[in-house]
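Narrative of activities, Objective 1.

The group set out to show that a structural description can be obtained from nothing but a protein's sequence at a throughput compatible with the screening campaign. Below is one input-output pair from the validation batch, recorded exactly as produced.
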Amino acid sequence: MATYGYGGGYQTTSYGAQGGADGGGFMGGSQQGSQDSPGGNKTYGKDSLRPVTIKQIIDAQQPHPDAEFTIDGSAVTQLTFIGQINQVSSQATNTTFKLDDGTGLIEVKQWVDSDADPDAAKDLPKEGEYLRVWGRLKAFNNKRHVGAHMIRPVKDFNEVGYHLLEATAVHLYFVRGPPESNGTNGAVKSEGGLFVDQNGYGGGAATGGSKVLSSNMSATAKKVYEFLKNSPQNNEGLHVHMIAQALGLPSNEVFKAGDEMLSEGAIYTTVDDETWAVLEI
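Output recorded for this entry:
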């Protein structure tokens, strides 16, 4: 996997996510000449390609219309992500793909090269296929989309999982700092997350690698979560009836709490739908 240091550079990865000559993408900074504003105020000489989820794209901050988008408090100009095609719309000047990666939906626009040889044109990807996208986040009429520099089909499904791991690693770098300087008490910025709402309840920070629950989580769900997190268990986790018996709660209340935690992304099912374990992050 790529390494992430303060220099902001990405090393070569197995799937060419960083672009470049061997990645099927674009060279870093290649868009500088065409993307500068008329006033010359914007420069992209230090662009870094950021792997992200669609939720991060949707949640990206933009203080004002002319400002750069930021994710985890850091400016983002070039980004890459993977999504499944939900819809394809082809027009004379551009093709629009609506992509879904399980965290959200975003439109990707790729402009048609009018000078290209029509006989050499490739068939458009179809609905249900997965695409890797390289491009820029843009906004028009208060609606966000990604302007694609390049797209390509995902041939190896392992790339989907690889990308999510890489996006997670970069996200953790920005919110917690490099692993060597994090320590056991590293503070977590409240910039938002990759997959689900990650606002903490009680204003506390996550510790021990566990998720911070949202403030609207019920008291029962919090109680069950703490029990799951602190109880000795194997990799299979704990069964619902065992949790109910230990906490003195009706099974139906524990099931409701489980639904909350599952939708929050705080736990996951293991051997069956009634056996749960805490999702470590």
